[in-house]
Specification:
Length: about 210
C-alpha cells in the first residue's frame, strides 16, 4: 500500500511579477508616449490597456520592432524605438515587503521562480533596474514560452523547468484566474490581496521556520 504524508510542504515558490513583486502603472507610459504623439494621454493609456497588440506581443507573436511600429501607426508616436522603450517599460516600482519576503524564502534555501505574462522590453528594464530580479532559479516568461497564463502550456513549462508537480509548488499571483489554473493542477496557491496577508500564509505553511 502507498503511504501518503499530508500535508506536503512546498519545495519551491513561484512568483508572479506584476502586482506581486513590482507594482506598475501604465498611465506613466501613456503620458510619456502621448507627449510625442498625436493622441491625448488618456487615449494612449486606453489604447495600451485595450489593444490586442499587447497580448500578441506578450505571447511572442510580435517582435519588439513590430510592436513598436504598430503602436506608432496607431498613436502617431514620433520618437525612435529607444525613446519608446524607455517610456513603455519604466512603469514599475518595487514592492519592498514582497522582495523582502522573497529574500527570506531564499535564505531558507528554497528555490524560487518568476512566472509572468510579460514582454522583452519590460524584462530588459526590470533586469537593469531591480537587482532582486537576478535572484531566482528560473524565469518562465510568456513571450518566451509562447503562451500566457492561464493557458496550460505555460504551467507545463514551469513544471518541466522545475521538475516539480502538484503540492510541491507554492504559487503566488494577484489574479484569480491564474491562481485557479494552478490550483486545478494541485499546486498550493496564494491569491495576493496584500503583502502582509501573503507573508502570513507563507509562514503558516512553515516555509520560514
Ligand atoms: Mg500580476
Amino acid at each position: 500500500m502507498r503511504k501518503f504524508n499530508h500535508p506536503v510542504k512546498p519545495t519551491i515558490v513561484v512568483f508572479d511579477l506584476g502586482k506581486v513583486l513590482l507594482d506598475f502603472d501604465y498611465s506613466i507610459a501613456g503620458r510619456r508616449i502621448a507627449a510625442q504623439s498625436k493622441m491625448p494621454a488618456a487615449a494612449v493609456q486606453k489604447f495600451l490597456d485595450q489593444t490586442p497588440l499587447l497580448h500578441r506581443y506578450e505571447t511572442g507573436l510580435l517582435t519588439r520592432q513590430e510592436f513598436f511600429e504598430m503602436v506608432c501607426a496607431q498613436t502617431g508616436f514620433r520618437g525612435d524605438i529607444n525613446e519608446f522603450s524607455g517610456h513603455f517599460a519604466d512603469i514599475f516600482t518595487e514592492m519592498p515587503e514582497m522582495t523582502a519576503l522573497h529574500a527570506a524564502i531564499r535564505r531558507k534555501g528554497i528555490p524560487t521562480y518568476i512566472f509572468s505574462n510579460t514582454n522583452d522590453l519590460a524584462v530588459e528594464h526590470v533586469r537593469r533596474a531591480f537587482p532582486f530580479f537576478a535572484n531566482f532559479d528560473g524565469y518562465i516568461l510568456s513571450h518566451e514560452v509562447g503562451a500566457m497564463k492561464p493557458a496550460a502550456k505555460i504551467y507545463d513549462a514551469l513544471e518541466n523547468m522545475s521538475s516539480r508537480r502538484g503540492a510541491e509548488i507554492l504559487y503566488i499571483d494577484d489574479r484569480r484566474e491564474n491562481i485557479d489554473a494552478g490550483a486545478a493542477r494541485g499546486w498550493r496557491t496564494i491569491l495576493q490581496i496584500d503583502p502582509a496577508r501573503t507573508r502570513a500564509e507563507v509562514e503558516k505553511l512553515g516555509l520560514l521556520d
